[in-house]
Amino acid sequence: MRTRGSRRSSRGRGWVKGLIVGLFTGVAGALLGLSPLGSTFERSVGLHWLFNMRGVIEPPPDVVVVAIDGRTGDQLGLPPLPREWPRTIHGQLVDTLVQKGASVIVFDVHFHKPKSPEHDQGFVNAVDRAERVVLVEQVNGKRQPIADQNGVFSGMVWIEELLQPFPELADVARGLGTFTLPKLEASVYEFWVFKDSVGDAPTMPAVALQIHGLQDFAPWQHVIGQQLQYSEQTVLPQSAADISNAQQLREYMLAIRDVFKDGQSGDFDLESLLRRSERLDLDPKARRRLEALVNVYAGNPHRYLNYYGPPGTITTVPYHAVIKGGDPNVPESALDFADKIVFVGFSDLYDPGQPDRFYTVYTREDGVDLSGVEIAATAFSNLLTSRSLQQANRWTSLGMLFGFGLVIGTLVYLLPAIIGVPVAIALAALYAVIAQFSFNTMDYWMPLTTPMLVQFPVALFLGLLGQYLLERRKLQHVSEAINYYLPDNVVLDLTENRLDPSAINKVVYSTCLATDMAGFSTIAETLNPGELANFLNDYFDTLAKPLKQYHVDVTEFRADAIMCAWTSASGPNTEVRRKAVLASLQAADAIDEFKKRCATYESSLRIGLEVGTVYVGHAGGGGHFVFSIVGDCANTASRIEGLNKHIGTQILATSAVVEDVEDLLLRPLGGFVFVGKTEPLPIVEILSTRSSARVEQVQLCERFAEGLEAFHNGQWPKATQRFESILMDYPTDGPSRFLLGRCAQYRAGQSVPEDPGVIRMAAK
Hints:
Number of helices: 25
Structural class: alpha/beta
Radius of gyration: 32 Å
Number of domains: 3
């Protein structure tokens, strides 16, 4: 019989073990948060999660992007490449924007070399008249050797310097500023307000904001003037008119920045300055400008971008629409630039291959990234509204991670699983809700992925492991029953061979069909687990019917994807390929019907087909196996399925799949080299059976073949003309749009292939 003391001792040991689990979970999370890996994890996963859950937010209405895109040259009767335009066209743009009342005009186009004196002078005169133009400076970096006093090289140092526009233009600009973007894991998350590597030079968004704020010069001086302690060499401007050029503006901004940075006044803090501005009788816009300027100078020079949404979220107006005074696709209200800050640069919302692009959390599925000029406008908008992201500081983050891990780890270990798991899920969900709420309402970025994807699973694993060990005997029979999970047609073979997995393993000729559910992650976020399970069951049942109709031999479910195989033990077989092709067409039709009854799912089915030899049988080890399809054929089918996403198609196959299969309407797309592959594969699109094909489908194939021939012959202008003509009649045709983008890339001299008939894919 156990005594009261022994029970108390047992409970005490339980609490100690629970605290140990909690401490381990908390310390592990805190250490991960301190590491570069943890920072990368939070940026690449957590920040994407927070942005996408928050969705699009309204950008400031007084910030506009005037976009130079792939159609601008044609619309204005100019060469397609902007570098070949006469600069008088930019002067005309400046004059038009000034006439329409723009407050600041920012060019994210570098004019570092003079061209035609006559055309350059026209642009210079327009900038001079405007007195509100900001031009971009490039940052050039290079390694420079360091020598000691004896002239012996002792090392290398990285030096950066600013490259200004050509002198005549730089002299008349109201402001100059660089805008280099730090890339982390190939993505852009941050921007500089002042660039310390080039003497704390203010960047383009900060310069634009200061010029925009010159209209409030008197109240601005009232807010900060008594606190500024200029050096004897600095002349204090008496009015905005005394800051007439870029050099004077930079000196003024650096002087103010130095005071903030050095803390020369004890009362010179952000809150006191904002309280001082509140006492002034100002309209809301003027007060916002003053608060924004205070935050620019008093805040961190290195900030996180608070994106507003995908490309085009910030009001974007085509360059040609401003020059021409209108465009049928642009509302009249969009051409009202009164008191607006206008950013001019390359921004194509339709071409994934636009020259000035950056991968961000809002890169679209079709590959279109945010342009550099829209990111510059985003950074400016963050400064104007004082809404750049505020990341939890180091110690606050560590406290959050440690506290979360300690609480959840301890509770999961101490509470019975039936209570502990729901409590842990509830706490994790509460933390996630708080993190998302803080992000949505206060632009405050708390650690998210480390608690959710590391500490929470670790706490569950460690906490439940002890309970599992105690219950292991009770669950032994259940675990034995689920060690093997096989298709029905394999169970009998296994039974007859006394559960010998190797007895049913085969290497056979096969046609592999790969498909997955496009947009699954978005659907999973909107449904609870029970609804998601019902949805998946319905989806897979819909797909299974045409597959079974054509007697598929092996069906393997991989999360939200399916891998199928029609096999032939005797080698290449036309019937095996015919069944797979017809099943693909039926599956596409079945999913179209599925979409009609299930509003949650909007995407089209994507299928890839390949033929070859595969291993069909048990794969795995340690007493646990799955019945699987393994081989290069299956892997290639998956790659071909993924190609649909890039070129906007539904059913793709290698030419070997459709060989000798009659009554098919096919569209050859050329040779593709997939990531990780060395040899090109001829890819065809399967549109329908020829007997059921529509007239427009047949005509599309014929017209596309002409464009493809020109493309394969390296005749880029001719191919461009053919594909543009197709898109006029078939605006949603993905292959034409894809190859048109390649034509534009090759015509620009970018990554021109040795063999025009082969396209190398850079992504899966």
